[in-house]
């Protein structure tokens, strides 16, 4: 169990980080711990628990903006905006179930720091697209802010983009301002049955490129059951009916199509989000690649289970394929591969994040230094 | 011009002929411009109040040439200012007297279109509109649409993170760019992102977009394209009271409707536009709203009905729905002509670009009118109502002594007001030189120090577009010394620069 400290004010946090910089110590930032088992194990690193920075501080629904402490539970924020008929468009989720744990632990700061976006990311954008502003403390203990509390802003470097998905390597987020959007009036999921991967990618791509404006598109290949390609429409009732007709014209003739009831649809998307159809014994990878490479990529996999999200742009792959080989394959396809779930021994050996190209790695190092000159956040986890 | 730019280096100016020769060795022929008369067209961008002819202009044609020029300039201590089409309204491409102006207009080819992944790969000198035109026949378009889209380039859009009237629903440039190839201030070529929805490491792409040419020069851009909506409906809604219009906008959004575009004009803007293009605007409106909805026809029909009800509930005296595409164009004609219309009612105008929380609109407009009286200059307001991005056009006459200075002071007061009510200095035009010295109204010393650290991480010699965006950036070494000792500073809140 890691040694832990829980600062309760920005001042305490800043003092802690400044001290660590002077001492040459490393620290690991942590929210609710729902993603503890991602990255290399670092049992000897002191953990900074960020959950004291909690609570929604400002939320005016028609402004489409919400400000909350970074340690606020994701579930609290989702419930609050849902009560106003709104949502976080990037479809964030709690990683708990990916590790066979309950939901409820994930914090908004952790979701942002990990850049978590679910199936709706295809149409709604990513976490980075919805982080409007933040307050944080640098590795050397300097409190600062960037961005703002309005939806449109180009004042200064766009540091919100940079901290989203930075996995705690740049700064300790204390407060985040997010863009929220109206929740769609209704949702409808079509399940197209029996397509092989190339046909599924083709259908998903055509659907995403049609005026049907699908919200999400996923494909679960034939395993024990029949292959299922899921297409979701979100919007006003009249619009969904019209767009369903547009989709009907795209689906190949004589291919069976079901309309899922709400319960089945929610369960199906949950299964996509958490890759529940994949075995838990093999390491789980998240591979991003151009959709046009997706079916060739999965065809080349041996002894692996997979599913596609984001219209083929995201693959979840459970495989014992050598990590180096996975990364070469992902890179050659024009993408990258993240190791999400694996035993501690593998995680100690294989970096979770795809190693960047040399020129980019040099820039990353300089940017990290600009936030964390004492390498306090270089805990070895990423 | 009261603006302080980095002091020209006499040693560099002395070497001007040698520098021109070195650049000609990289880019042969006419592509290096050094004759005074030919440099003049480059002396300013869309912010014409500031003018400075560059030392030299170079117009490369390939990424390799851009990299070689930047590397040579870096190694020889010569400043570089990148320029796209030169339509910046914030002086982002204002030259330096001792700087090489690196124009990207000749990198103007669309390299690749992919309808499976729905991306276009273009060189930076391709115009914004040309991307849409390239994919129009297949039923696609590129969503961000700054008003200058026939002229502005995608490279400039990336540098400035350009917006447009459709960005509430479809996002600004950064939400629609998937990858870039760019040249670092040292002259290295790096690729960030690609055709995937996200990239694996730190989001350096998100940092480079909107960095105003301070962090690198983009030589290739991959953008996401969207399928064109099946139909588009436009509505013209007139209000007798500004407060009613503001409440109507909030109610539309509260009803779960995100229009493709939602523009507001105040009474002076309506009058100026109507006199200019005869769009059929009601001259008795205190506020006029244009609402554009897109999607399947059935969706547009339903939403037009809902917006009409909301408008009437908020005391709109006019709700007109465009019967056809011609009428829709007419609704937009006045709004899109707001700038030239201002040019007709006044010899000069100065366009501002703050964003405010929308709920502050009536208050802010009232205070802008009071400032207008104080400064003795007229103002007309057009407004991206959906996202709170305000464009006051300050009317002045540069030939009248003192008016330009008063217009600039008025503009400063407006932007300070935007920040005071919880908004920002710039919603889509960028900081450039125009708002550089106002940055401390929005950001603390610590906030700005972090921005400076980013600049220094990329460009420690401060050779790429210095004097833009960041106030008082002298030397990176100073910053370095400071952060080493930061933990020990007895009064960390004191200004240090």
3D architecture notes:
- The complex is a heterodimer of chains A (382) and B (497).
- Chain A contains 13 helices and 18 strands.
- Chain A is α+β, with helices and mostly antiparallel strands and 382 residues long.
- In chain A, strand 7 and strand 8 form a beta hairpin.
- Chain A starts with a strand and ends in an 11-residue tail after the last helix.
- Chain B has 19 helices and 19 strands.
- In chain B, strands 12, 13, 14, 15, 16, 17, 18 and 19 form an 8-stranded antiparallel β-sheet that branches. In chain B, strands 5-6-10-8-9 form a 5-stranded antiparallel β-sheet. Chain B has a 4-stranded mixed β-sheet with strand order 1-2-4-3, covered by helices on one side.
- In chain B, strand 5 (110-114) and strand 6 form a beta hairpin.
- Chains A and B meet through helix 1, strand 8, helix 6, strand 10 and helix 7 of A and strand 9, helix 9, helix 10, helix 12 and helix 18 of B.
Number of helices of chain A: 13
Largest sheet of chain B: 8 strands, antiparallel
Main sheet overview of chain A: 5 strands, antiparallel
Helical content of chain B stands at: 25-40%
**Biggest β-sheet: strands ordered side by side in the sheet of chain A:** 4-5-9-7-8
Beta percentage of chain A is: 15-25%
Alpha-beta classification of chain B: alpha+beta
Topology-level CATH name of the largest domain in chain B: Uridine Diphospho-n-acetylenolpyruvylglucosamine Reductase, domain 3
**Largest binding interface between chains:** A-B, 97 and 104 residues
Mean pLDDT of chain B: 93
CATH class of the largest domain in chain A: Alpha Beta
Radius of gyration of chain A: 21 Å
Radius of gyration of chain B: 23 Å
- Give the end-to-end Cα distance of chain A, rounded to a whole number of Å: 19 Å
- Please give the number of β-strands of chain B: 19
CATH architecture of the largest domain in chain A: 3-Layer(aba) Sandwich
Quaternary structure annotation:
heterodimer
CATH architecture assignment name of the largest domain in chain B: 2-Layer Sandwich
Question: What is the domain total for the residues of chain A?
Answer: 2
């Amino acid at each position: 169990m890691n040694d832990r400290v829980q600062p309760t004010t920005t001042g305490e946090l800043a003092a802690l980080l400044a001290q660590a910089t002077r001492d040459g110590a490393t620290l690991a930032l942590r929210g609710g711990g729902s993603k503890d088992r991602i990255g290399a194990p670092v049992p000897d690193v002191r953990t900074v628990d960020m959950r004291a920075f909690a609570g929604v501080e400002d939320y005016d629904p028609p402004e489409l903006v919400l400000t909350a402490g970074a340690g606020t539970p994701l579930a609290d924020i989702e419930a609050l905006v849902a009560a106003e008929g709104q949502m976080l468009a990037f479809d964030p989720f709690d990683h708990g179930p990916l590790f066979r744990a309950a939901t409820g632990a994930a914090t908004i700061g952790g979701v942002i720091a990990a850049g978590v976006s679910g199936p709706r990311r295809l149409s709604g954008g990513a976490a980075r697209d919805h982080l409007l502003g933040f307050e944080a403390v640098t590795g050397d203990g300097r409190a600062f802010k960037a961005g703002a509390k309005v939806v449109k802003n180009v004042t200064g470097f766009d540091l919100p983009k940079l901290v989203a998905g930075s996995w705690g390597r740049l700064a300790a987020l204390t407060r985040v301002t997010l863009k929220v959007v109206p929740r769609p009036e209704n949702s409808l999921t079509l399940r197209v049955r029996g397509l092989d991967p190339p046909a599924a990618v083709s259908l998903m791509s055509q659907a995403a490129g049609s005026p049907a404006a699908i919200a999400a598109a996923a494909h679960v290949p034939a395993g024990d059951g029949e292959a299922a390609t899921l297409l979701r429409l979100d919007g006003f009732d009249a619009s969904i009916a019209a767009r369903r007709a547009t989709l009907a014209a795209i689906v190949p003739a004589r291919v069976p199509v079901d309309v899922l009831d709400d319960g089945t649809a929610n369960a199906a998307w949950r299964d996509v989000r958490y890759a529940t159809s994949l075995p838990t014994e093999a390491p789980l990878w998240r591979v991003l690649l151009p959709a046009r490479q997706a079916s060739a990529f999965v065809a080349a996999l041996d002894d692996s289970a997979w599913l596609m999200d984001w219209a083929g742009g995201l693959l979840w792959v459970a495989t014992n394929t050598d990590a180096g080989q996975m990364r070469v394959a992902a890179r050659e396809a024009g993408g990258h591969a993240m190791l999400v779930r694996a035993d501690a021994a593998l995680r100690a050996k294989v970096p979770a994040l795809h190693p960047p190209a040399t020129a980019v790695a040099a820039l990353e190092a300089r940017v990290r230094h600009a936030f964390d000159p004492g390498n306090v956040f270089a805990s070895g986890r990423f | 011009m009261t603006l302080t730019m980095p002091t020209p280096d006499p040693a560099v100016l002395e070497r001007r002929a040698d520098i021109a020769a070195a650049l000609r060795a990289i880019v042969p022929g006419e592509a290096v411009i050094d004759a005074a008369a030919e440099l003049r067209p480059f002396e300013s961008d869309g912010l014409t109040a500031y003018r400075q002819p560059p030392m030299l202009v170079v117009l490369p044609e390939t990424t390799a040439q851009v990299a070689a020029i930047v590397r040579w300039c870096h190694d020889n201590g010569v400043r570089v200012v990148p320029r796209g089409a030169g339509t910046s309204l914030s002086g982002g491409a204002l030259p330096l007297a001792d700087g090489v102006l690196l124009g990207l207009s000749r990198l103007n080819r669309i390299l690749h279109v992919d309808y499976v992944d729905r991306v276009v790969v273009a060189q930076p000198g391709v115009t914004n509109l040309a991307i849409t035109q390239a994919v129009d026949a297949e039923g696609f378009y590129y969503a961000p649409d700054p008003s200058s889209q026939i002229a502005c380039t995608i490279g400039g859009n990336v540098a400035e993170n350009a917006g447009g009237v459709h960005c509430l629903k479809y996002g600004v440039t950064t939400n629609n760019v998937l990858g870039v190839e760019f040249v670092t201030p040292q002259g290295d070529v790096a690729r960030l992102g690609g055709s995937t929805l996200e990239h694996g490491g730190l989001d350096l792409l998100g940092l480079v977009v909107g960095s105003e040419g301070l962090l690198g020069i983009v030589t290739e851009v991959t953008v996401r394209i969207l399928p064109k909506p099946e139909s588009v409906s436009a509505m013209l809604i007139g209000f007798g009271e500004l407060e009613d219009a503001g409440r109507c906008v909030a109610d539309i959004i509260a009803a779960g409707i995100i229009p493709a575009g939602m523009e507001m004009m105040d009474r002076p803007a309506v009058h100026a536009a109507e006199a200019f293009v005869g769009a059929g605007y009601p001259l008795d409106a205190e506020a006029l709203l244009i609402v554009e909805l897109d999607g399947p026809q059935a969706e547009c029909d339903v939403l037009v009905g809902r917006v009409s009800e909301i408008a009437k509930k908020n005391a709109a005296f006019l709700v007109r729905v465009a019967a056809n595409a011609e009428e829709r164009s007419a609704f937009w004609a006045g709004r899109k002509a707001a700038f030239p219309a201002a040019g007709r009612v006044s010899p000069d105008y100065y366009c501002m670009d703050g964003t405010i929380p929308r709920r502050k609109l009536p208050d802010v407009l009232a205070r802008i009118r009071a400032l207008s009286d104080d400064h003795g200059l007229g103002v007309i307001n057009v407004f991206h109502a959906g996202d709170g991005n305000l464009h006051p056009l300050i009317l002045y006459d540069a030939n009248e002594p003192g008016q330009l200075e008063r217009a600039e002071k008025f503009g400063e007061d407006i932007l300070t007001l935007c920040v005071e009510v919880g908004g920002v200095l710039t919603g889509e035009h960028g900081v450039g030189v125009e708002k550089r010295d106002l940055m401390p109204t929005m950001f603390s010393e610590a906030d700005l120090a972090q921005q400076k650290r980013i600049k220094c991480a990329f460009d420690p010699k401060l050779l790429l577009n210095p004097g833009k965006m960041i106030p008082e950036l002298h030397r990176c070494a100073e910053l370095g010394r400071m952060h080493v000792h930061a933990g020990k500073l007895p009064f960390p809140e004191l200004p240090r620069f």
